[in-house]
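help with this record:
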Amino acid sequence: MKNKILKIFDYIFVLRPTLFFPIWTMYLLGVIIATNYENNSISFLPNFKLIYFLMLFTMLMGALFIMNQLVDVKTDKINKKLFLIADDHISYNFAKWEMIILLIIFFIGSLCNMLFLFCGLLQLLFWGILYDYEPFNWKGKPLLGILSNMMGGLLSMLMGWSIIHSFQEFSVQILLNFLPYLLGFAAVYLLTTIPDEKGDELDNKKTMVVEHGIKITQLFALILMIMTFFVGIINMDLKIIIPSGMAISLFAFAYYKGTVKETLRAIRFGVLFLSMVVVVFHVWYLGLVTIIFFLSRWYYKNRFDLNYPTFSVKND
């Protein structure tokens, strides 16, 4: 009975809910920046509108994460990271239909907010089709991989921004407000390619780490995080100055050590620092993240005997 219950959870965890943390954070930062123009008070409970569009956003991103796994079955087998589809715990066809159904629900549910829908469709283009599929395969190209992830971060923030403001209120200043967050998002993305170096190289992907090695990749990530900090100062935005300032030391230490272990530490705590900024404004977010974290710990331990997710890197 226990195994059957755990098997049901496979169809939820194929969405990769632990990856929701950084994208939820970017989405909610878009909401926070949007409300800065009015009254950015502390929210202990989310309102219906916020929950509704967050659920649609989550369905879209879950579909994109399935899409990525469908394309990367070979690489995932090598890296031994994403095994639900790669190791046939979920059939390829079932996963494909789960992705399609999620995209249909997102499309229908978003018809009430055309800017939100438009940004979601661009998300599907940049973080889905262009990122994953040939002949584009942006994830396998150093600069285009960075661009694709910055676009993914930008569109996530815009989708959050769009539930507060309309397209007519959009301006270049909004992009300038978003810029330090996008630089930080790109910095973390660069580090996430390092643990996947072996599988990406065998799959002929030309990521930054495959092309230039771990030290250069860590250096570029560090430079991007330093830029994040200084652009935050220019914008006088404490929401990004504080977490990026804290993250710089971790990124610098990862570069100094040149190891995957310290790279993972910089990724995990870099995301945590920014997420805690969101919690300051949306206290309920801490509860959501905590539930997903411990539910994931329970699932992976009981299903695959893995201690995941974790902030510990001693065994990595």
The longest helix spans residues 208-235.
